[in-house]
Specification:
alpha+beta, 8-stranded antiparallel beta sheet, 3-stranded antiparallel beta sheet, globular
Length: 409
């Protein structure tokens, strides 16, 4: 079962006197949390596919009406809501629309399962204790591109080598011309492959009874499996309550249908899901990820010690404070107080757009900051004109600039 949850809201408003201290950040997140829990009551589209490849779509709790329909897979269909809104729907296989150099991304974080056979019983051999980096590290034979096996990581894997799975070098790798080597190949790992897609075109007037006021549509997805599915036996029904205090309350709100299923994956803003939450089972919280903020700060500081020096080595300014380290470093944090000064600029700087073509009407729309994007964990669609809204997606090419420095005062 798949759930697409949708919560329209007003556009972001930002005060000119934001408090950029750790205390100010936590107070800001507390306010966002209270708003989310009390105001954003998501509607949802619930999707299941039966053995005859027919799809059941249930539209629940929308201002434009609740209804259900059964459609054929792999066939575009126009549905009609109780209020007369036309909804375009497609469920089936489509060519993956996102350019994704997946082996390059996993090289940047030294993620061994993409390149090696890593037993399930060796969780410490997933992200190896090697600095994160955009540039190849001199002597990092565990992950550097191997011209003798150019398709390594694009399918073929190796056995884990004996000995230490670390790196002890002190410089970035350069080629025979003295140029740095990126960990990315520029090859689309998903080219020529299909993905399972749920595609919906929904009128804003169906999503909210205040379309002139609610110009932001927050959405996120969830994957559920029947509890009898043995393949997910390692994922707990109830995450650690200290990381998700509302877990028992959330469980009590499940309807009879959902009680037969187990939540196994959430997807909102993909960088928050993959790089910050690290896809940990007990962090599959969906939009309601406010309690993960301290972990995000510590994790972002860990990433910064790798990616920050990579950026400055290229002659660019980094928003991460890495003490002018000449090469990427592997460093972790146990205390959020120690980590926060390193990532303060990253969290609060506005992410610039290349030009103003996205805002043709010149509306007073503030640019988003990483902290606005990561928490709550939603994909925000900005309705800036008639027609489809603009999504904040495309993370695989856009998350890297988070570590670059914009204007800062």
């Amino acid at each position: 079962m798949y759930r697409i949850l949708i919560a329209p809201d007003r556009r972001l408003e930002r005060r000119g006197n934001d408090d950029w201290s750790l205390e100010g950040l936590l107070a800001y997140l507390e306010g966002v949390k209270d708003k989310y829990l009390s105001v954003l009551k998501p509607s949802e589209v619930r999707v299941t596919v039966d053995q005859s490849n027919r799809t059941s779509l249930c539209f629940l709790n929308f201002p434009g009406g609740s209804f259900s329909a059964v459609i054929e897979t792999n066939r575009p269909t126009t549905l009609q809501s109780p209020g007369g809104h036309a909804i375009q729907a497609f469920v089936g296989a489509r060519s993956d629309a996102i350019f994704n150099d997946l082996p390059g991304f996993f090289r940047s974080i030294n993620y061994a399962p993409q390149f090696y056979h890593v037993p399930h019983t060796m969780p410490d051999a997933r992200e190896l204790r090697i600095p994160k980096t955009f540039l190849e590290l001199e002597g990092n034979d565990l992950f550097n591109y191997d011209p003798q096996q150019p398709d390594w990581g694009h399918g073929p894997k190796r056995d884990l080598p004996p000995g230490s799975l670390t790196w002890s070098g002190n410089r970035f790798r350069k080629d025979e011309n003295g140029n740095f080597r990126f960990v990315y190949s520029g090859k689309d790992a998903r080219a020529g492959q299909n993905c399972n897609a749920i595609i919906l075109e929904l009128p804003l007037a169906f999503l909210t009874d205040r379309p002139g006021e609610h110009r932001i549509v927050n959405t996120w997805g969830e994957s559920w499996v029947l509890k009898a599915a043995a393949k997910v036996e390692t994922i707990p029904d109830h995450p650690l309550w200290i990381e998700h205090p509302r877990v028992w309350l959330d469980a009590s709100t499940l309807d009879e249908d959902l009680r037969n299923y187990k939540l196994v994956d959430t997807d909102g803003q993909a960088f928050a899901d993959a790089a910050l939450s690290e896809r940990e089972d007990n962090r599959q919280l969906g939009a309601n990820n406010f309690w993960l903020a301290p972990h995000f700060i510590k994790r972002l500081a860990h990433l910064g010690w790798g990616f920050g020096p990579s950026i400055t080595a290229l002659g660019l300014a980094s928003a991460f404070d890495h003490d002018n380290s000449p090469v990427s470093t592997h460093r972790t944090y146990a205390d959020v107080v120690d980590a926060f000064p390193r990532v303060r600029k990253i969290l609060f700087q506005e992410l610039n757009m290349p030009d103003d073509s996205w805002n043709r009407k010149g509306l007073p729309i503030p640019l988003r900051r990483p902290i606005d994007i990561f928490i709550p964990n939603v994909n925000s669609i900005n309705w800036i004109r008639r027609g489809p809204g603009r999504s904040a997606g495309g993370w695989k090419t856009r998350w890297r600039p988070v570590f670059c420095r914009r204007s800062w005062t």
